[in-house]
Write a structure and sequence with these properties.
- With 412 residues, the chain is α+β, with helices and mostly antiparallel strands.
- It has three domains: 15-93 and 182-276, 2-Layer Sandwich (Gyrase A, domain 2); 95-178, Aminomethyltransferase beta-barrel domains (Alpha-Beta Plaits), CATH 3.30.70.1400; 323-397, Beta Barrel (Elongation Factor Tu (Ef-tu), domain 3).
- Helices cover 22% and strands 30% of the residues.
- The strands form four sheets. The chain has a six-stranded mixed sheet, sandwiched between helices. Strands 14-17-16-15-18-19 form a six-stranded antiparallel barrel. A five-stranded antiparallel sheet has the order 5-6-7-4-8.
- Helix 3 (75-84) packs across helix 8 (267-276).
Length: 412
C-alpha cells in the first residue's frame, strides 16, 4: 500500500465530505497507518493504484468498494485545473460490458430508455435502465462498436447489480461479456485536453464530435478506444485501454501535459465538477426511487421508440406531470447545502431533500441540487433548509450552475 493514501471511514461519505473530515481533525498518516490495513485491505484497486504513491498529498477513500484517490494535490487546485487547463482522472473502477448477437440491438432497446437504433458505429449515447415502476437501475453509456456489437459503461458500485439485471432479461441471440477487470479507463478533461492528447496519438481526434469515438486508436504506442465524452462539463476525452497499458498511458499523458498545466485529479474534483454542470450521480440524483423524468432527464427517455422496461410508468408520469422535480438552489445565509438536508416551505412543511451540495469552486456560491415537490420548483421560489437544527433561507436558481464557455473564433 502506498503511504500517500489515507484510510477511509467504515461508513459511507461523499469524497468531499470525507476530505473535510480528515482536514478538520488534522489526521496524520502515522496516526492511522495501523488502521489502513484493517479498513482498506479488502477494497478493490485499479491498475494505477501503485502510481498514487508518486503524489505525496494523495488521499484515498472507500468509494463503492474501491480504494480510490479523493485528491492528488487538493480539490480546489484540481477543479481549477480542469476548468482552466486540464485534469487527468483514473476512472478504471467503472464497469464495461460487451453485448453481441443478432438480437443485441433489440435487447438494448428493451433495456434502456434512449433509442439505440439511432446509433451508428463510432457513436455513443447516454441512457438509463429502469425498473417497471420507473425507478432507475443505473445510468450508463452505450457505445456502438459495430453491427450488433455494443459496449456498455456502467457505474462501479452497480456492476454486479447491472450484470444480474441484464442476464435476467436477456432473450434470443444475445451474448454478454463482462470485461471490467481487464479494462482501464482514463479521463482527460479540460480546455487543453485536445492539445495534450494530440501529443500522444495520431488519431484524428480534433474532428471527433461529442459522443463519438475512435476504436483501435494508438495512444502512446498502445491500442485504445478514444471517446469524446466526460463527466466534468468541459471538453475532453475518455480513453479505454487494456489494464496492462494503463500505467504507460497515464505517465505519457502527464508528461505530454506538463507544459499545459495538466494535473492528476481525484474523486473530490470529479464530484464538484459534475455537480456544477448538473450531471447526475447515481445514488443521489438518480436511484431506484427517483425516475429519469423527476431528475430532469426526459431528453434521454424516448417514449415513442417502442416498448422498454419502465415505459408505461414513465408515460404516465409525463402525461400527468411528475410530483417531484430536481432543482438548483442557492443558500442565502451562512452555510453549505449538504446531501440529505431537508427542504421546507414557508409554513415549515418538508417538501424535499438536498441530493448534492457544496460551495462551488468556480462560482464561490453555496449551491445545491434538491428533489422537491413540483409546486416549489419555479426559479425564484423561496425555500428553507434544515441545517443543524436551524432553518436557513434559500432560493431556487437556474441550473446547470456552470456551462462550458463558447469559443469564439479569432477574426482574421
Amino acid at each position: 500500500m502506498g503511504e500517500a493514501c489515507f484510510a477511509a471511514p467504515p461508513f459511507s461519505l461523499s469524497p468531499v465530505l470525507f476530505l473535510m473530515l480528515i482536514e478538520n481533525f488534522e489526521l496524520h498518516s502515522s496516526q492511522i497507518r495501523a488502521k489502513e490495513v484493517i479498513l482498506l485491505s479488502s477494497l478493490k484497486r485499479t491498475p494505477l493504484f501503485p502510481l498514487y504513491a508518486d503524489f505525496k498529498s494523495a488521499r484515498c477513500i472507500d468509494f463503492g468498494g474501491w480504494e480510490l484517490p479523493v485528491q492528488f494535490s487538493g480539490i480546489q487546485q484540481e477543479h481549477a485545473a480542469v476548468r482552466e487547463q486540464a485534469g487527468l482522472f483514473d476512472v478504471s473502477h467503472m464497469g464495461e460490458f460487451i453485448v453481441t448477437g443478432s438480437n443485441a440491438e433489440t435487447f438494448l432497446q428493451q433495456m434502456t430508455t434512449n433509442d439505440v437504433s439511432q446509433l451508428q458505429p463510432g457513436q455513443a449515447q447516454y441512457t438509463m435502465m429502469c425498473y417497471p415502476d420507473g425507478g432507475v437501475v443505473d445510468d450508463l453509456l452505450v457505445y456502438k462498436l459495430g453491427e450488433q456489437q455494443y459496449m456498455l459503461v456502467v457505474n462501479a458500485s452497480n456492476i454486479d447489480k447491472d450484470w444480474q439485471w441484464l442476464e435476467e432479461n436477456a432473450e434470443g441471440d444475445v451474448s454478454l461479456r463482462n470485461q471490467s477487470d481487464s479494462t482501464a479507463l482514463l479521463a482527460l478533461q479540460g480546455p487543453k485536453a485536445l492539445d495534450i492528447l494530440s501529443k500522444v496519438t495520431d488519431a484524428p481526434i480534433a474532428a471527433l464530435p461529442a459522443f463519438h469515438f475512435i476504436n483501435q486508436a494508438s495512444v502512446y504506442g498502445h491500442t485504445a478506444l478514444v471517446s469524446r465524452t466526460g463527466y466534468t462539463g468541459e471538453d475532453g476525452f475518455e480513453i479505454y485501454c487494456s489494464s496492462s497499458h494503463a500505467a504507460s498511458i497515464w505517465r505519457g499523458l502527464l508528461a505530454a501535459g506538463e507544459a499545459y498545466g495538466l494535473m492528476p485529479a481525484g474523486l473530490g474534483a470529479r464530484d464538484t465538477l459534475r455537480f456544477e454542470a448538473k450531471l447526475p450521480l447515481y445514488g443521489q440524483e438518480l436511484s431506484a426511487d427517483i425516475s429519469p423524468l423527476e431528475a430532469g432527464l426526459g431528453y434521454f427517455v424516448k417514449l415513442d421508440k417502442g416498448p422498454f422496461i419502465g415505459r408505461e410508468e414513465l408515460q404516465r408520469q409525463k402525461a400527468e406531470g411528475v410530483l417531484r422535480k430536481l432543482i438548483g438552489l442557492e443558500l442565502l445565509e451562512r452555510g453549505i447545502p449538504r446531501p440529505h438536508y431537508t427542504v421546507h416551505n414557508a409554513e415549515g412543511e418538508q417538501i424535499g431533500e438536498v441530493t448534492t451540495g457544496t460551495q462551488s469552486p468556480t462560482l464561490k456560491r453555496n449551491l445545491g441540487l434538491a428533489l422537491v415537490q413540483s409546486a416549489y420548483a419555479a426559479i425564484g421560489t423561496e425555500l428553507w433548509l434544515e441545517v443543524r437544527g436551524k432553518r436557513l433561507k434559500a432560493v431556487v436558481v437556474k441550473s446547470p450552475f456552470y456551462k462550458q464557455p463558447k469559443v469564439i473564433p479569432a477574426q482574421s
